[in-house]
Amino acid sequence: MELGVRLEQNQVLAPRVEQSVRILQMDGVQLGEYLKELALENPVAEVEPPPRREQKEKLAQRKLEWLENQTRREQENMGYYDDDGDLTPEQNTPAPQEESLADHLLAQAELTAVPKALAAAVRYVIGCIDDNGYLKTSPGQMCAEAAASGALLEQAVALIQSFDPPGVGARDLAECLCLQIPASDTLARRLARDFLPEIAKNRVGALASKTGASAADVEAAIARIRRLNPKPGALYGAHSIPHYITPDIVVTGFEDHYNVMLCEFAYPQVRLSERYLQIARETTDPEVIQYISEKIDQVNWVIKCIENRNRTLVEVARAIVRRQERFFRYGPQRLGVLRMREIAGDVGLHESTVSRAVRGKYLQCAHGVYPLRYFFVKGPEHGGTVSSEAVKYKLRALIDAEDRAHPFSDRALCGLLTADGVNVSRRTVAKYRAEMGVAGSSGRARG
Fold it and tell me: Would you say the pTM of this structure is higher than 0.70?
């Protein structure tokens, strides 16, 4: 043991950067709770409650009067789309929210004794983990956004990977599976790390030859791998219960354009306390002046972060409306393929910033209330510009219109879609039908 002094230079996560990212991700309810906590901690901050119900109704009526001629869609406007894209009727009584993956990880982080800089890095990395439990953000991007060293962020990732659920924080499927396999199970770890394509094709003989293990041992190891969870984060908040939703964005349609508006009554407003500003002007005590100045600076920064959040959210929503104009004009059957990187390019932001901006936010239009993530659609397996959601919509329409005594087979549905200009395979039709919860032709037959 020895006692000495050592000088070293380390990058740490900037607290203001972390705060800005947190506010960007908040929906209206979360932002309201955050501002209430701020007012309790900072005496200079005054929180003005959102407009009373009567004022809300007047403002909403003024903003949404264009919906009056949409009475035939009134029922649609009373619903919302959950994360799987299914229309769910809104209930009259709010239900408690289940613990999210981020909340679960943050609770474990708070119980872990680590240096302050590492704790801040852990919180940042948790914010980068997607709903399935994967860390898709690149190391370079995280270093730039968090203003932290790569070594510090790697420490944070390693710590998160030791949390529950097993496999969380992995960069890819192989790493996710290896995190769930005991270190003593060397064969299963090697198979998961190096031979996932062969496992998918169940090439037991080839794997036995490559690893030098017996076919029986390889088969047993594959069985153990297949019992693992490829999406550890999906267990948290997966069973969404209907609850009240306040849209963050309202889109109004006119003959020649669409108007995108922010719902400013979704959360309270924060401002500086006139009383404390007066004290700062009148006092000569340097400590009081310094204290109030620091608190004023904190409130001004929060106001700036909220303004940045709102501006980013509106810009992203406008870009979505431009890209998905056919959806807003004709409905879900015209939802097109759209990737987050396209919107990021339109608004001049990084893809991760767009992802944080739309997380947990909702948009209301003439066709209902949708999560903003609903508008980001991958192309179907057959390729082309028609989204998988649009194909499912057409498929649903065909099934609803069929003769119940003689329902269409998957091959017949495939032919009808092809005749309508949508080239899909029978296997794709069967997959989409199963995803919609629709039985096969024999299960739909009615005598």
Answer: no
